[in-house]
Structure formats: C-alpha cells, structure tokens
Design a protein that fits this description.
The chain has 675 residues and is α+β, with helices and mostly antiparallel strands. The protein folds into five domains: 1-30; 31-300 and 309-314, Sandwich (Immunoglobulin-like); 315-507, no CATH class; 520-594, no CATH class; 597-674, Immunoglobulin-like, CATH 2.60.40. It has 13 helices and 39 strands. Strands 2, 4, 5, 7, 8, 9, 10, 11, 12, 13 and 14 form an eleven-stranded mixed sheet that branches. The chain has a four-stranded antiparallel sheet with strand order 15-16-21-20, with no helix packed on it. Strands 19-18-22-24 form a four-stranded antiparallel sheet, with no helix packed on it. Helix 5 (193-206) crosses helix 13.
Length: 675
C-alpha cells in the first residue's frame, strides 16, 4: 500500500508539473509584438519589397496579410530562437486608397493586430540637430501651414524620442503618437518645419503619399549619429575618434549614442532617402566635417542595404553680425559641406544653400539667432533637389555655382552654371555685393562686381591692381545678393586654397594607427573639375584654360591629415600635386596642360580661339575687331606675325614644343604659353 501510494503521488506530481509547463507555454505563446513604427496611418515605401519584423515566442508562426486595391497578399514567417521574426511582401506601387495590414500568430486569433489607413508612397528620414527639430509652429508662415494642413492628408509622420543609448537598441522609443496624419490639429507641435515643407512641396508636385520619419536631437555632433561599427573603422577613428574628449565634455554627446537609440531601430525599414540638417555643433572641428559626413552617408546606406539612397543636406546658414569678409570656423564648415559635392567617391548627394535665410542673424538672444524661423525656403530648396535628382523633374534645383573663372589684367571673370534665365541681384537691391579680391599679399579688399550677361560676373577693385584670388560670400553672415532666376542664392565661393585663419583646438584620439591615405577625391583647374577623375590614376592630360599665366589648382584630399603641395612649371605647362599622408606615404598626381581653349575680351561671344589640328596650330579670330598675332618658338624666334580680321583664321605648321602666343586687339594685350 505504501509503495502504491508513493507511485500515485509520483504520477500526480508528473501530471501537475506537466500541467504547469503547458499552462506556462500557453501563457507565452500568444506573445506578438510589432515595432512602434508599424501602426495605423503609416506610409510604406513603394516599389521595393515590403519588410516587416517583430517579436514572438520562438518557433511561433506569424501571419502577415495586406489588403490593397481589392486584393490580398499574404505570407507567413517563423520566429527564430531569439524570438525575432522578419517577413516580406512583394513590392507595391503607389496607392492613395487606404490599405489594411494584419498580423497574427497562427492558431491564436486573439493576437490579431489590425493596422488601418495605411498608404503606399515614399518615405523620407529627416534627421539632424535643433534646426531640423524646430516644428511647424516655428515657421514665419506657421498660421498658413497649420491652417492648410487638412488639405494634405496624404502626408504622414512618425517621430522618435530622444534616446541616447550606449548600445544599439532593437526597439525604438516614441511619443504617445504613432504614425499620424499631418492635419491642422497635430502638425504644428509634432512635425519638423523643414521636413514638413519638404514633404508638402513634393506631395503637391507628385500627388503621392509622403511619409516622414523624424529623428533628431538638438546640440548633437555628427559623431553621435554614426554607428559603432563605422566608428571602429580605423580611418573614421582617426578623423572623428575623439571619444575621450567628447565624453569629458558631455557624456550624452559621445560617439554613436543617438545612432544607437534613434537610428538603429529604424534600419531595415525601406526608405526613399535621407534629408539632413546638422553642423552647428561641429564648427569647432570644421576641417574634419566633410570626412565625417562622408562616413555617415556610407554608414547609413550600408545599414539600409538599398544601394546609393539619396542624401540631401543643408549648408550652414548666415550667422552673427553682417560682414563683407571674415575667416571663421563657420565659413570653413560651409566649405567642407561644399567639398562633399565634388567627392566622386560619394554619389547621389545634394546641398541646399541657405546663406540668406536667417532673418535675425545678429540677434543678441542666441536662441533666436541660432534658430531662424525662415525655414520655408530651406524645405523648398531641399524638395527641388529631390524632385530633380530623385524624381527626374526638369527644374532648376540649385543656386548659381562658379563653373570656371579667369583673371585678365585687373579683372576677374566668373562664369556660372545654374543661372536659369539669367543671374539676378536680390529683388529689392540694385548693387551687386559680396565679392572681394586679393593680390599676392593675401590681403582681401572690397570689390565692385557687375553682371555682364546671363551667366557671367566681372569683378574689379581699385585697391587691387593685379588680383590673384577672388571670394564671394566669405563670412559668417556675408553681405551678398547674387541669385538665379528662381531666387536661389549663389553658393559661397573662393578661387584660392590659402590656409584658413580660423584656429582649431587639438583633441585627444584613441587611435594609434597613422593614416596612410595619400589619395585625392577631386582636382579642379580654374574651377573646372577634371573629367573622369580617378583617385588611383596619377597622370592626366588636360586642355589648359590659358586665359591667364598661371593655373589655380584645387586639390581635395581624401584624408584630413594629408598635406598637399602644388608646383607649377609655366614653361612645360605641367602641374605636380604632391600628397603626403600622415604616415609619410607620398603620392604625386601629374597634369600636362596641352592646349589653350579660348580667351575672352568681354564675354563668351567675343573671343580668340586656337587649337591643334593634326600637325598645325589653328588660330581663329572671333573678336569683333581685328587682332594682331605673334607666335614665338622656345628659341625666341618669331614663327608667325600676322593680322587677323573678324572670323579669319591662320594655320601654322609647328613641330612639337612650347610656343609663346601674343595677341593685340584694341587696347588689350595678352600672352599665352602653349604646349
């Protein structure tokens, strides 16, 4: 009896334990969790596979169903050992008709989660610091945009909350609002002004749903938005790896913390592209900014895995007291942002110039002057870039940019692109401002500038008799007013590459490895980029713009620690660019200037052209008046002396070598070396 009783007790114990285990399993088997940004009112990215993920009990089957345009698309996926599941549905075209998404665990109907009013369109990530964060109610036109928001129900938004994390987070934190329709009740306090204007401009043009994912934090440095994986990259660490300094200064601003909490949980959610507005917090290390931006872009594109996603960003605005010229880290950072556009290793980027948007740049209240309310032009300029570059719309999207320049006696001619129907002075002003000139003394003086045709500005100064350098809008808050026909301002510009007078602090680094990168990312001669430039190609033959007796060379290194030395030989017409890496590694780029294209008297239409044709040197007079021509060989012998009428040409049989060409037309005289 005793044995039987013990046996029965054992059996009952087994049954009881089994029952407990079964009940425990049942309690956890109905666990189904979605990321916060999978919610009603969301926008899914069109034309790419739709990716969904979440968490469930290991081994459970998750059913995903999308009801769209009178059809239903389904798939099932099994949660892994860690409980994470990922499922895909086929790519879908744009739809403005509300769709329905359903998620449930197979066998557990009570787990059904239904997302309604879902649209398919384009999703953009808007990120940066406080000027991206400022909401629609901060706009100068806030009342108008809030009042009209109900007309733009196809614009939806999701906003992450501040989350500085020391490790990458799987789950994003958000406000009490999930995805929401940007209506008059919500848009003012909950949506970035720049992002909303950007979205509205695109939506008006394309008539498609636009989703905005907002992820920003005021006062943050760019390092905080780059992944720990990228930070471990030796080159990045050398450039931006000031971990000890950042943590000493502000522990919440150390590397990767905002990426970990606010970007990492979003990676994998299909996007159309990124818009970025940040930089103010990095002015103390402006010279490094291009390299850090480059690594941020490469980092995010790699993490999203959608190829070269568009990355459009905002150049630094005007700040502080108005000035015609000052050298400051603010100016240097703008230039680094510009250089990124010429970096051939980073494609599919665009920059909005906003040098004119700060209406209170000198306000004594730092919060006012640092956060301009005139953000409508910023969002619109970003949108125009996206519409042209991403969506293929035929529109002028950028402001005037110097395409090439030449020095002629006491004048400098600047030839612009992106001028539209013609260069203009700001509508309420009559005198062109913002230009300065310098001679060999590197002392810049105010200059007079004049628009002489749709694309050309001529600059002179009574204080500089022989200019060798010209700059435009080179100040924190420059007095400048050059625009194109669609009222986008000209980009700040300088022809020289003289060392900036701004000073920068030295920062600690945890990297011991010396940088051995001695490559260039671009070379420009007199403002003209070398076509098909390849950092691994070290010899080039380039047609010389010999409108002057020297060539202005812009060589942009790939590494900020690299040193550049440019040497020119006026006789051989050869340019040598020597790049010395931090490690001591040296590479040289060699450029042979083999011919002269043209020379301008006043504009593009009045010029003398000379070029090589087989074994002959052809000289063509396009001037409106006769031109006297003299050609001398390298021994000083005159091999041609003649008078050319308008449109008349001469052919000179010439053996290979160096020649001096002298031209006399009216009161103008010019000399050129030709190879």
């Amino acid at each position: 009896m005793i044995k039987v009783s013990n046996a029965l007790k054992a059996c009952w114990l087994i049954v009881l334990l089994t029952s407990i285990n079964l009940n425990a399993w049942t309690a956890t088997s109905d666990y189904l969790e979605l990321p916060l940004f999978f919610s009603s009112n969301m926008v899914l990215q069109r034309d790419v596979p739709l990716k969904f993920w979440g968490w469930a009990s290991p081994g459970e089957t998750v059913n995903i169903a999308l009801s769209i345009q009178n059809k239903e698309i389904q798939t099932s996926v099994v949660a892994g050992a860690d409980g994470k599941w990922t499922g895909y549905l086929p790519a879908q075209p744009v739809t403005v008709e509300p769709c329905e998404l359903r998620f449930s665990l197979q066998g557990y109907p009570e787990t059904l989660q239904v997302l309604t009013n879902v649209l398919v369109g384009d999703v953009w990530l808007a990120a940066g610091q406080s000027n991206m964060e400022k909401k629609v109610n901060h706009l100068l036109e806030a009342d108008e945009y809030i009042r009209e928001a109900n007309n733009y129900s196809l614009i939806r938004s999701f906003k992450t909350t501040y989350n500085a994390a020391t490790e990458p987070q799987e789950k994003v934190k958000s406000t009490s609002l999930p995805w929401f329709v940007c209506n008059s009740q919500l848009v003012g306090d909950n949506v970035s002004a720049v992002a909303y204007v950007f979205a509205r401009y695109i939506q008006e043009e394309l008539k498609i749903p636009i989703g905005i994912i907002q992820s920003y934090r005021g006062g943050t440095e760019i390092e905080t938005w780059i992944s720990p994986k990228q930070y471990s990259n030796a080159q990045y660490c050398k450039i931006a790896g000031r971990k000890e300094f950042l943590e000493e200064l502000n522990p919440s601003n150390s590397h990767s913390v905002n990426y970990n909490g606010q970007i990492h949980p979003l990676t994998g959610f299909p996007m159309k592209g990124f818009v970025w507005y940040q930089g103010e917090s990095n002015t103390k290390r402006a010279k490094e900014y291009r390299y850090m931006m480059k690594m941020l872009i490469e980092d995010w594109r790699s993490l999203w895995g959608q190829g070269e996603l568009p990355f459009y960003y905002v150049q630094m605005y005007n700040y502080s007291t108005p000035a015609i010229y000052d050298e400051y880290n603010w100016v240097d950072l703008r230039e680094q942002q510009e250089f990124l556009l010429y970096d051939k290793t980073v494609s599919n980027t665009g920059m909005a110039v906003i040098i004119d948007t700060n209406e209170e740049a000198a306000n004594p209240d730092v919060n006012v002057r640092a956060h301009p309310r005139n953000k409508k032009p910023i969002g619109e300029r970003l949108a125009r870039i996206a519409l042209k570059e991403t969506y293929g719309n035929d529109m002028l999207s950028e402001g005037p940019v110097v395409n090439r320049f030449r020095f002629s006696n006491d004048s400098v001619y600047l030839y612009y692109r992106n001028y539209g129907d013609g260069l203009r002075i700001k509508s309420d002003e009559s005198t062109l401002n913002g230009f300065i000139l310098s001679g060999d003394d590197m002392s810049f003086k105010p200059a007079k500038a004049e628009i002489i045709n749709d694309s050309t500005v001529v600059v002179t100064s009574s204080l500089v008799s022989q200019p060798v350098a010209v700059r435009y809008a080179w100040a924190r808050n420059p007095i400048c007013n050059l625009y194109n026909s669609v009222d986008i301002p000209a980009m700040p510009f300088r022809s020289d590459m003289w060392t900036s007078k701004a000073t920068y602090s030295q920062f600690k680094t945890s990297c011991d490895k010396s940088d051995d990168d001695a490559s260039l990312v671009s070379i420009r001669l007199n403002g003209v980029p070398i076509e098909n430039f390849n950092p691994a190609q070290f010899k080039y033959n380039v047609a010389s713009g010999a409108e002057k007796n020297f060539t202005v060379v812009h060589a942009v290194p790939n590494s900020p620690s690299a040193q550049i030395k440019v040497t020119e030989n006026d006789v051989t017409q050869k340019v040598i660019i020597t790049v010395t890496a931090e490690s001591g590694l040296v590479q040289q780029y060699e450029i042979d200037l083999y011919a002269v294209s043209s020379v301008d008297k006043t504009n593009e239409q009045n010029r003398l052209t000379f070029f090589q044709q087989n074994a002959s040197l052809i000289i063509l007079n396009n001037n409106a008046e006769k031109t006297d021509v003299e050609v001398f060989n390298s021994q000083g012998q005159c091999v041609l002396k003649d008078e050319l009428q308008q449109y008349e040409q001469r052919a000179l049989q010439a053996i290979p070598g160096i020649y001096l060409l002298s031209m006399f037309f009216g009161k103008y005289k010019s000399k050129f070396l030709m190879k």
